[in-house]
Amino acid sequence: MKDIQIEKLIASEEARQRDGLELIPSENYVSRDVLTALGSVFTNKYSEGYPGKRYYGGQDFTDQIEQLAIDRAKQLFRADHANVQPHSGAPANEAVYNAWLQPGDTVLAMDLGHGGHLTHGAPVTRSAQLYNFIRYKMKDTTTGEIDYDNLRQLALEHKPKIILAGFSAYPRELDYAKFAEIGNEVGALLMADMAHIAGLIAAGVAKNPFDYGFHVITTTTHKTLRGPRGGMILSMGKVGNPLRKVEKTLENIPTLIDRSIFPGMQGGPHMHSIAAKAVAFYEALQPEFKDYAKQIVANASVLADEMQKQGFVLLTGGTSNHLILADVYKSFGIDGKTVEHALDAIGLNVNANAIADDTLPPFRPSGIRLGTPAITTRGFTTEHMPQIALWMRQAIDNRDNPKVLAKLHKEVTALARQFPLPSDK
Predict the structure, then answer these.
(1) Is 137 a catalytic residue?
(2) Of the candidates 279, 291, 149, 269, which has an alpha carbon nearest to the alpha carbon of residue 227?
(3) pLDDT tens readout for residues 73-121
(4) Which of 46, 255, 409, 416 could form a disulfide with 346 if both were Cys (CB 3.0 to 4.6 A apart)?
(5) Global model pTM greater than 0.70
(6) Catalytic (active site) residue 185
């Protein structure tokens, strides 16, 4: 018997996605092939362990699926090893901490307010209760330059076991060479969280931390990589038997991470998700994916310029990647949540976001965060960015006028329907 309630809600969500424009930079649209793999019979199968080393029978095809995902991920990012089992980005980060640290050890990571992620040591998280997180910041919020001199001073003072380069709300590219120089000076494991820019790195549009001597990269598999919601850990070093204990050395990082995921943190992997990851990696290996990634960055750059023409004050003065962070309190005297709601009302989806050293509360911060991965997937180009920026300003100016908002929503929907979702094709 069908669950009509859920069926209707899924149909409604499909319509919402089809009729609006997704501008949240951590979201994207997957292909029909990714959706098919995610909804496949692999959801029925338990597969504790790793390819060739399982604790359950009937692994004829699960091993092949997971090995394909591993091999494709290694090829995409030029890594020695890939663990494709993490359920998402947060447990991927936790697994690296668990593999390399003892409780009380120090991690040097980006401050949440300056663009870092919750799992980079925000006090409300579990990892912050276990480990000692020291935070570095931007030196200049108008340019986005990281204070590398202070970062080095902090590293020399606190001797972190891990130096973490990565972000969730930072519109510029990090200087991985400087991170590596500092990390090597203090003997730290070099870890990058590339969750937001994984697709850009895979396509060669953004720098690959492995080219600068990093040991570990964690990522989600959605966002710019355009796969299912999930996580992955890539590493450099000797690949050993994940079911055997090894010495805690940099060379053994791949094995230490495998053991940290299973049996350390997770049980059976989600094989349907791993199948969908493998499909997404296959798609990212195709030549057209490079064009897609280049278009993401081009669209973001033009959208940032057009937003500034409409009166938006942007953190770091623009963007070098897929992501834009705007200070709407400084721009228009209203908080980010008010802007989020106004844009939702016309079918433009962004998220309220804190800015550096924000004076407003977390749920009603001073900024909004937006980006171009999803609209680029649908086929939007730089020529459409001025209209999107104009709609944003019009929604803000008319946020208390339902008639104008309704008119703008019709305009957004009319344009959105010209660009089908990938799953419609």
Answers:
(1) no
(2) 279
(3) 999 999 999 999 999 999 999 999 999 999 999 999 998 777 888 888 8
(4) 409
(5) yes
(6) no
Q: Name every residue whose Cβ is closer than 8 Å to that of residue 61 and which is 6 or more positions away in sequence.
A: none
Between the CA of residue 79 and those of 10, 96, 238, 420, what are the distances in Å?
A: 38, 16, 11, 35
Give per-residue burial for 199-215: e unless 16+ CB within 10 Å, then b.
bbbbbebbbbbbebebb
Distance of CA 354 to the CA centre of its chain: 17
CB 124 within 8 A of CB 117: no
Provide the pLDDT for residue 121. Answer: 80
CATH hierarchy code of domain 33-284: 3.40.640.10
Give domain limits for the chain: 4-29+289-424, 33-284
Q: Which is catalytic among the residues 223, 226, 277, 369?
A: 223
pLDDT for 119: 84
Does position 143 have pLDDT exceeding 90, yes or no?
A: no
pLDDT for 237:
97
- Does the annotation mark 66 as catalytic? no
pLDDT at 249 over 90: yes
| 292 catalytic residue (yes or no) | no
Catalytic, out of 18, 46, 294, 397: 46
245-249: long-range pairs with CB below 8 Å, 24+: 248/100
Helix-then-strand count for the chain, H and E: 16, 17
Write down the catalytic residue from 62, 141, 220, 224. 220
Task: Give the CATH class of 4-29+289-424.
Answer: alpha beta
Tell me what the mean pLDDT of segment 179-186 comes to: 98
